[in-house]
Amino acid sequence: MEFAHHDEAAAFVAALSRLLDSPKASASGRQSPIEVWARSAVATEGVRLFLSDNALKVAKGAFSPVPIVRTVKRASLPDDSFLIIEGGVSSAWGVAEASTRLSRQ
Q1: How far apart are CA 104 and CA 42, in angstroms?
Q2: What angle do CA 81, 55, 65 make, to 5 degrees?
């Protein structure tokens, strides 16, 4: 997924983090990992998010339509991308915290 503005990506990441941290998501017992990787140079530039299959499934169920630009295998993620959400590990964030985490490398 690509976001032209950092703030839009932060809002999406915050909403997805809250959804993934909810009791409903925790109770679903997914077998495959839920991961969201990000590539975000600075807060003034756009952001690319890379969602695992299960993260994409959750996002589509809650936020459809999800603007998918292209499919990338995990092994082909850009070298400067970083893990921002890990299902079962990451907590729920607000927009400000998501924005800070997107700016961190």
Answers
A1: 9
A2: 105
- Which amino acid appears at position 51 of this protein? L
Cα–Cα nearest to 39, from 65, 13, 14: 13
Tokens at 61, concatenated = 């169920």
Contacting residues for 4 by C-beta, under 8 A, at least 6 apart: 46
Residue bearing tokens 């459809």: 64
Domain ranges of the chain: 2-103
Three-class secondary structure of residue 4 per DSSP: coil
Question: What's the whole-model pTM score?
Answer: 0.83
Chain centroid offset of residue 54 CA: 11
Integer Cα distance of 100 and 22 in angstroms = 22
Q: What is the pLDDT of residue 51?
A: 93
Instruction: Report the C-alpha gap between 78 and 29 in whole angstroms.
Output: 29
pLDDT band at residue 15 under the 50/70/90 scheme: very high
